[in-house]
Amino acid sequence: MAVCLIEVWERFGFYGMQALIIYYMVQRLGFEDSKANLVWGAAAALIYVSPIVGGWIGDQILGTKRTMVLGAVIMSLGYALMTIPTVNTWFLYVSLGVVVVGNGLFKPNAGNLVRKIFKGDDERLDSAFTIYYMAVNIGSTVSILLTPIIKSKLTAVYGVDIGWHGAFSVSCVGLIIGLAHYFAMKQTLVYYGSDADDKPLNIKKLVFVIIGSVLAVLASALILEYQALARAFVYIAVLITTIIFVYLIAKSEIKERSGLIVVFILTIQTVFFFVFYQQMSTSLALFALRNVDWNFNVFGFHMWTWQPAQFFALNPLWIMILSPFLAWLYNWTNKNNINFSVATKFFLGFVVVALGFFIFSFSGEFAVDGKTSSWVMIWGYGAYSLGELLVSGLGLAMIARFVPERMGGFMMGAYFVASGSSQYLGGVVANFASIPKNVTDPLQTLPIYTDLFNKLGYAAIGCTLISLAVLPKLLSLTKHHESYVALQK
């Protein structure tokens, strides 16, 4: 429960910030759409890649629990920096750099602690991670709905400076509450953690980690400031990871190779998925700002008015609605000997992602004066979120299922590098719908967005066809791997 609560508040802070960050850069700092998309794309990439180092620090240097707490403290500092009223862009980059480092220390160790608590009890472990995943979505949903309202109310009373930065302060306060909950309940975790947790805190190692964290913050800020550096970072990370991936497959035992090839192919498919995923916080967010009617009507009756950033909450809301249904469906198919492989689920995931983007693209046909109904966002996000559950939701399970234990750490890291790199590529794709500053007429911006969404729909169809083409081979490799596992038992 202690880990679950701190995770609720950590996600509360992160998604509250993410809901506003693209709007903050465009509306407050005056960034062009193209710059805002790439800055947030680079930040998202760093946020995904950083847990690779944080997990190692937790296991080998400071301990899982200490590293998790240190990460939460550093993240709260990053959000606190974002509450300072300033339009200095370098200050924003440093603040995001602090969040990147804090996330890298916190995220892998929180999940790892859950695994250690229920080690050896697979049934309870599944339940624990289900609760843990729901905690993520509860925290994110509440903050995405809340922070835009707080920003709007504070702006109306105290002005734009207090509005934006007061909303960011909610993220900081949320994480402090999470830390308070953790320290109040930490005795329940006294018997859990890594080997390093059982040893006295080594001050020299702590100082080493803090100095490394400061350097990592500065490096992250430089990457966010200079887009050429961001591109180089992403492309080099992808190249190195791919080379090592291929090397490990080539050097693996013959009996292990089929499972590793499956992981490699599905990881490539995951890269394409996260390009679509990044549109939620870039092109779709700006589309909601400029071309969506914020009034929610049912049969002609006005129900409520959205804040643009609140549409982002549709994603975790749909995930919470659809997750129990998918869990029931998976259990039903297992009981009836209907085997849906991971590769099949990836294929179906791209089908519904394509449907989601086609819903967004068709919105122009029903728009009035360049504004489309908020129902378009609801149903588009519904289809997209189902695709996310089928693809992204199975990514880590895929690693655990097909990768030999001795390679598990690297392959998990490779998965996060691939996911993070594609977040940046998603920002690049979003720039195909970047709107010049002098264009404000919804009738002019609408076709720019719908054209991008239409192309993304067809791109998802292309991914679907590729998934379908490699599906027989993946099924054959999967069957071969399962035969090997059965022999091992």
Brief summary of the model shown:
The chain has 17 helices and two strands. The chain has 489 residues and is mainly α. Helix 4 packs antiparallel against helix 5.
Could you describe the 3D structure shown?
The chain has 489 residues and is an all-alpha fold. It has two domains: 1-225, Up-down Bundle (Growth Hormone, Chain: A); 251-489, Growth Hormone, Chain: A, CATH 1.20.1250. It has helices at residues 2-28, 33-49, 51-60, 64-82, 89-117, 122-158, 160-185, 203-225, 227-251, 254-277, 283-291, 314-335, 342-362, 374-391, 395-402, 408-430, 442-488, and strands at residues 295-298, 301-305. The longest helix has 47 residues, at 442-488. It is globular, with a radius of gyration of 22 Å. This is MFS transporter. It is found in: Cell membrane. InterPro entries: Dipep/tripep_permease, MFS_trans_sf, MFS_Transporters, POT_fam.
User: What is the string of helix and strand elements?
Assistant: HHHHHHHHHHHEEHHHHHH
Number of strands: 2
Strand content: under 5%
Q: What's the alpha carbon Rg, rounded to whole Å?
A: 22 Å
The CATH architecture of the largest domain comes to: Up-down Bundle
- Separate helix tally: 17
Low-confidence stretches: none
Overall average residue pLDDT: 83
Major sheet: order of its strands? Answer: 1-2
Portion of residues in helices?
Answer: over 70%
Shape descriptor = globular
- What is the CATH third-level topology name of the largest domain? Growth Hormone, Chain: A
| Count of discrete domains | 2
What is the CATH domain class of the largest domain? Mainly Alpha
Q: Could you give me the name of the CATH homologous superfamily of the largest domain? A: MFS general substrate transporter like domains
Largest sheet: 2 strands, antiparallel
Class by SSE composition: mainly alpha
Distance N to C terminus: 34 Å
